[in-house]
Amino acid sequence: MLTVQNVLKRSLFLETEVVAGANGLQRQVKWTHVLEIPFFDDTIFQGGELILSTGFGFEWRDSSNTSFLLNLIERNASCLCIELGHYFEEIPKEMIEVANEYNFPIIIFKKFVNFVEITQDIHSFIINAHHEKLVELDSISREFHSLSLTTHGVSNILKLLQQKTEASIVYLPIEGTPFSIPRLKNDVLEQLLQTIYKEKDQWHDRITNDPPFEWKVRDHTILLQPVGAMDQIWAYLVMVLDRKSDEFDFLILDRASLAISQDLLRKHYLDEKRLRLESTWLNDLIYRRINNEEQAWGFISLSSKRNSNCYQIVIIDIEDVFQPSSLSLSDEENESAIYHYSLKIRSEFEKYSFTPYITSKRNQIIVLAFDLGTTNSSKERILKVIDTLLYVRVGESNQIRIGVGRQYQLLLDAHNSLREAQLVLNYRAFSTSVFYEDLGIFRLIQLIQHDQDTASFIKDYLSPIIYYDKENGTELLLTLAKYFEFDRSKKLTAQDLYIVRQTLYHRLEKIKMILNFDFEAPENRLNVEIALKSYQFTQQGGVPSK
Fold first, then answer.
1. Nearest CA to 106 among 61, 66, 64, 158?
2. Out of 221-235, 315-329, 406-420, which region has the weakest mean confidence (pLDDT)?
3. N or C: which end of the chain has fewer CB within 10 A?
């Protein structure tokens, strides 16, 4: 970091004098700027500028002197360098007092100096120093990457980060015990953790792509960076500096967190591959290749056996992942997309107190979720899981559908929960719920939809309307379906069909005439509604929609 003190040691500044603000010589110099106008705004300032001026164009009065100086201080300039001579003979007392009050250096040149040479010299130094920092950062990044491939990758990366920054490093895993490098005494670490968690409202919802969060605590600067991937946070990396932070601190912290993320991600992938055995077991269970309850429980973890009373099957259908539009992806890339999403699925289920066992088949991921039980209902927690999963993109697909079977206790009933979850997916066009138990009357209709008696039932109650619509191009069947959908509200039905209420009245009378019975009479209403629902299932497109 180039400071005003460093600048004064350069050859072009050897004959200068600091006449005010000597306590501010550690201010950082980021650039130089020649300023010969008394009034200016933020458009020419980024902060950290060394200001060069001859006083040309100024009308130096007491008030203008101090307002000009305060303007520089407010915009975080580094210092003011003035060439004494024709335009400026001496520094006014008022300016010296203000500069001393704000520790803002005022430096004078008693002889003529070439501002172009000064600008070139300082800019060359800043650019070369910046280049050297980037080269050093690139070298450190390579070291981070190499260390991420070692056995104790995380610890080694943190040690190198501490060595290069000379800061205290604290690692806060989401699951696990925090630790520091260098190792701090327990009471010191505890006090530091309290300081960090005190600001949790400010950083707990940050994502891995966000810049580090920075705040000041007495004489220290704290930087905090999330560590993770795939929209998941696995840890937080904290750097505690006994000085002001600079751009290099932000960059090296980012590189370290990225290397740690890669190390953790690789370990997660290895864990997921080891869970292939789990996939084999689950396939054998749901497709009834295991016929013994005791044998089925042999694969379940002890924690699940102790804490879980029931389970249910969840099917996550990922549309288009293996469709022709995605054939440009290799098999390995498709498999990677499934692994990627499986990690997210496992994380979300565990987050809401489920133990998930996962397998996949073509474009479906099948989860057997053991409920570990909390104060909230399992249905409420599964809905929270689903809310998250629906917004995660998988490969080239962004179309995800989810079906949830009923809960069971015997593992040999898993195929029943699987069948129910699949039925939810099959009939999502007719129900907005993801739960089998919420399908209502559709649960009965799906059992009889292919029965000959069902076809006769539909014919007896709806065939005159169906035939009339086909012959005349009308929408009476749609009108009837919407009428029942809105609980016979004429106002809502007319609004949904975009017709006036008088037209609806006419249609309803026409339907009664064609059916030759009053479909609103209690003895007919239930039969007509069931016939409509059954007709939806027996037709590829269901009831035509407007």
1. 66
2. 315-329
3. C
Do residues 33 and 51 make contact, with C-beta atoms less than 8 angstroms apart? Answer: yes
Please classify residue 440 by burial: count the beta carbons closer than 10 Å to its beta carbon, then call 0-12 exposed, 13-18 middle and 19+ buried. exposed
Question: Residue 77 has which token pair?
Answer: 């300039």
Mapped onto helix, strand or coil, the DSSP state of residue 129 is helix
CB-based burial of residue 523 (10 Å sphere; 0-12 exposed, 13-18 middle, 19+ buried)? exposed
Q: Which amino acid appears at position 398 of this protein?
A: N
The answer to whether 490 and 505 have CB atoms below 8 angstroms apart is: yes
Structure tokens at 158: 């943190």
Q: Residue type for 151, please? A: T
Q: How far apart are CA 469 and CA 477, in angstroms?
A: 7
pLDDT of residue 100: 92
| Residue whose tokens read 């000041």 | 216
* Residue 448 structure tokens: 């009889």
| Phi-psi label, residue 125: left if phi above 0, alpha if psi -120 to 50, beta otherwise | alpha
* Nearest of 370, 360, 347, 351 to residue 299 by alpha carbon: 370
Residue, of 222 and 540, whose pLDDT is higher? 222
451 — pLDDT class (breaks 50, 70, 90) = low
In whole angstroms, give the CA distance from residue 216 to residue 245.
10
Please give the distance of CA 221 from its chain centroid, rounded to a whole number. 26
